Sequence to fold (460 residues):
Amino acid sequence: MDERISTVMQARICFPLFVANVALLLLVGAEALGRQEQAPPLRLVCEPAPAEPEAGIKCPMGQSASGGKFTPGGPTDPRALTQLQEAILQQRETIISQKEVIKELTAKLSGCEGGPAGGASGGQGAVRPARRKGLAHPPIKDTMGDPPGASTDHLARSLLALSQRMEILEQQQENVSVRPVNVAGLQALLSEHVEQLGARLLARVQAHLTGQLRAHNETVLQRAVFEAQLAELARKVSELERAGVPGLNPPGEFKLSLPLRTNYMCGRFEETLPELYAVTMCMWLRAAPGAAGLGTPFSYAVPGQANELVLIEWGNHPMEFLVNDKVAQLPLSVNDGGWHHVCVTWTTRDGVWEAFQDGVRRGVGEGLAPWHPIKPGGVLILGQEQDTVGGRFDATQAFVGELAYFNLWDRVLAPAEMASMWNCSGNPSGNILSWTGETVQVVGGAAMRPLEPCPERVYS
Fold:
């Protein structure tokens, strides 16, 4: 550190001396030229100077000092000639000495720039200034061979920058001397700091994700609690209906209300189906006004076949009747917001089917899953389409509206029987499934409500 300070002090002392010498040199040359201009015009003859061979200066013959031509042998002034030769020699020596000074000063500055020679690169407390970020500086220009006046400004700027950098190095050296740290220690410290920052960032990301997951779990939990409360309330209402509480309609005079298109609201028959070779299903239904498609009024799923028996109208497609995942399109239209009575029959013999709307047959066909019996042991759901037995509902295929008097028989009913249900002249119950409060269970917030009288439904 002392050597660096000494170098800087030498630089600060030598630079003013150098500038003063250059100024003195210019002053002496100007004075000599002034005396020459004031003297009367002389015709000079140059002779070899009695100096060292490398320092001798010879003037071209036949040319005057002022640039005019002359002839040898003219009048001469030995005194003036000697004085001019001495001044020129002195200038030469001054320039040579200043070049040596500049060369030495440049070498010292370069040494100060690179630090002490032979210093340890990895020892305790050894820190190379050139490797410190932010201390890099372009190398100082070597002025050897260049005119000193052309590099004076650059040298002054370099000295100023160097002095500032030396002050920074002194401060850093003081800090290092207080707490010596080697390069390996600095790398380990930096690596530890980066790991700490990474751990903090990872902790924040995990906290953010945990917060989102917690919020999602809370939402799911709240929804599950809400659905459980709705199911419990619906169960209590069903118990009241079954008990015949005064003010409620008689058994069977109720409707299943599905007000929202969800994947959890539905009705479920507690009883299952036996193996069937013929079937008739009848119901009253009213679709919600403006609903896009009727949805799925009912679906029956068995293990291995989710579409064993389905009535569905999805989007703008026609209503479809599925048996064992085979499809028949029904020419029915019930999306006007009013009550409609719908019956569908099917028999395994040739797969013949019929479709009735409001007591009138609207369609008939055959080849729908012929000779395939309806499998037993499944689950019949009202208002949802099943992708697995009793579950995996799709909200886009849900029924939105009201259902009533869903009955199922193991035979094909006569057209007159189906017409009597519509015109209120008869109300037979299904021998396989019948519409009573004991057989239908509401799930997911669906509700049982009083049913409008039959004439009101007919003329709705």
User: Anything to note?
Assistant: The longest strand covers residues 278-287. The chain has six helices and 14 strands.
